[in-house]
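Look at a sample.

——
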Amino acid sequence: MGVVFVRQGRVFLAQRQGSHGEATWGSAGGHLEFGETLEECARREAMEELGVTVGELRALCLSNIVAYGRHYVDVEFLGDIGQQQPLPAAADGSFGEYGWFSLDEPPEPLFEPMRLAIASLRSGQWYYP
């Protein structure tokens, strides 16, 4: 489960640390808590990991991902954070470098769910089997 932030043709990305996909570039995301909706999870992860309150959410893509020694179903949302600036939580330690990057030239390597989310933004394709 993840949430992507786009502003003026740029996507917010942070380099993952201490988890699967380490050293790849992604955004806020994580696992559902018991009884939580998909949207509640996306909003919670955005607040916990990047300190932003997400307004409107739009489903972006659904993916069947086999990567990093794991197999999971991923749902990515496009989230509206207005003019808030995401800032990785220091105590969390999940991210290193971060910033806003062109959708046309994001840093590499991308975290697989983020790679598919950016592909969805470009193509409109919403499902990746």
In short: The mean pLDDT is 95. The chain has two helices and eight strands. The radius of gyration is 13 Å.
